[in-house]
Write a structure and sequence with these properties.
six-stranded mixed sheet; alpha+beta; 24% strand; 5 helices; 164 residues
């Protein structure tokens, strides 16, 4: 793993003197601001939110903090990385970054291509659904499970659909 070249990569959200609910509010507000208007672009295409309205609970689903078995510590971990998602997708140097992995897989159940973006160093996973002229943000979260990142890197390394 190599250090990122981009010194402008945002820091995680501060947890100091904040309740879990305040951290969730701050993270979902960042995602609403970044993704509800379709202003973020990835590879020249707009990214639209899976739920194009400003519904906090929809963005909690995108962060995967609505899972029934998730504890508060993991909810915080998944929320505090919210400022990084937009920058990771828009980062112009990510094509040359060895930590940036991008591949696509066909989701048979949904009959659509899914783009998986992984920042190995930051342990961030972003999944986008592909449409003809835009992408839909399916999920974006911090993947704290070490073996999960290894599994994703293995999927990337064996994929026929690696993208630069």
């Amino acid at each position: 793993m190599v250090d990122c070249k981009n010194s402008e990569f945002p820091t995680i959200l501060s947890q100091k003197d904040k309740t879990l609910e305040q951290i969730i509010d701050e993270a979902t507000n960042i995602l609403i601001k970044d993704f509800s208007l379709g202003l973020v672009k990835f590879r020249g295409r707009e990214i639209k939110a899976q739920y194009p309205y400003n519904d906090k609970f929809s963005y909690e689903h995108i962060l995967k903090i609505d899972e029934p078995t998730i504890n508060d510590k993991l909810k915080i971990l998944r929320c505090i990385y919210a400022p990084k998602f937009k920058v990771l997708l828009e980062e112009p140097e990510n094509k040359a970054c060895p930590n940036f992995k991008h591949w696509k897989e066909f989701d048979i159940r949904k009959s659509q291509w899914r783009h998986i973006i992984l920042c190995e160093k930051e342990k961030i996973i972003i999944v986008l659904a592909e449409h003809k002229t835009f992408f839909i943000l399916i999920t974006a979260y911090y993947a704290h499970y070490h073996n999960y990142i290894k599994k994703q890197i293995k999927k990337y390394n064996t994929s026929k659909y690696k993208l630069k």
